[in-house]
Amino acid sequence: MNLFDVYPLNDIEIVKAAGSTVWDAEGQEYLDLYGGHAVISIGHTHPHYVSRLTDQLNKVGFYSNSVKIPLQQQLAEKLGQVSGKTDYQLFLCNSGAEANENALKLASFYNGRKKVIAFKGAFHGRTSLAVAATDNPKIIAPVNETDNIIFLLHNDIAALNAAFTEYGNEIAAVIIEGIQGVGGIKEASVAFLQQIRSLCNQYNAVYIADSVQCGYGRTGIFYSHDYAGVDADVYTMAKGMGNGFPVAGISIAPKFKPWYGMLGTTFGGNHLACAAALAVLEVMEQDQLMKNAEEVGSYLIAELKKIEGVLEVRGRGLMIGIDLPESLAHVKKELLFKHHIFTGEAKPNVIRLLPALNLTKDHADQFLEKFKIALKG
Ligand SMILES: Cc1ncc(COP(=O)(O)O)c(C=O)c1O
């Protein structure tokens, strides 16, 4: 049997990892500024994470949601405290797409409506409604096509107002990333998020903050959307939540009332997933990783902005996009194969930095030095 060949692969096998360093099968060391696609939040193989998961595995790894799992309540309390949303409710699932799918479903159950506002450049996942709300026709199968999604220009307040004026009471939800990741590190403006909040209040629509990539402390605050000073009704999260263990969740405002069977999952909230997520929050809190993300991120952004040849530097904290001209499109590959630095990318020529939140200033300096050489090379 062969693998279903859907990923273009780099010819590298990673066999060991610690903090922001990984090693391949030949013993070559790499600096990891990609974090396995924004997933590694507290660093690879963090000792506290490894021991918490190992201890849990030696007790019980999985039992279904038909029994009490006190770790889920512990996780909810910790998440409420670290995110500053102590009165929200937690539903646990397994991936970012699933989190968004559940958030959209919840919104529609809540107000009985069908239409969803999403934005150009958005990525919300690959399951049916999440992919329909994703601005990439190539990955939307005919069965996922629906007239229920209204795509608007990102950060266009006039278009947002007009859509609410036209569809008003048909709109179930507005879903938006605080900073578009796949879309090339484009931040939603404060005024835009405030207007979403205000229109959702006016029309009883649900404001869904997709925090799958930009959330979980990456930008220096727990949910990057909260930078706008208004609360979302539902926050979706995944990537950094388990530092590589598949776990996702949605944080739900108090006004949503649950009923048995409204949402559900086999694997969501299992013992190991909760242990992983608790370990992440404990390390984030103990080592003040949001503060570090803010400080090292601000330093990197300021230094990158000084470099000649870069078109634009976007982002916040440790979610950074470096926009390069077409003539420098080779730089990302050169960083990986010549300088042994993992970075992410976005179309057409954006280098995406999504490292662990405990990236050190030394690591940042190493990257800056190699990046400058790669630009000249
Ligand atoms: C903003 C955003 N939402 C949702 C998803 C989907 O997450 P997953 O791949 O875990 O389903 C992603 C993945 O890249 C994402 O960046």
Automatic annotation (TrEMBL):
SUPFAM superfamilies: PLP-dependent transferases. GO terms for molecular function: identical protein binding; pyridoxal phosphate binding; transaminase activity. CDD domains: OAT_like. Gene3D superfamilies: Aspartate Aminotransferase, domain 1 (3.90.1150.10), Type I PLP-dependent aspartate aminotransferase-like (Major domain) (3.40.640.10). It comes from the Bacteria. Its cofactor is pyridoxal 5'-phosphate. Keywords: Aminotransferase, Pyridoxal phosphate, Transferase. Belongs to the class-III pyridoxal-phosphate-dependent aminotransferase family. This is Acetylornithine aminotransferase.
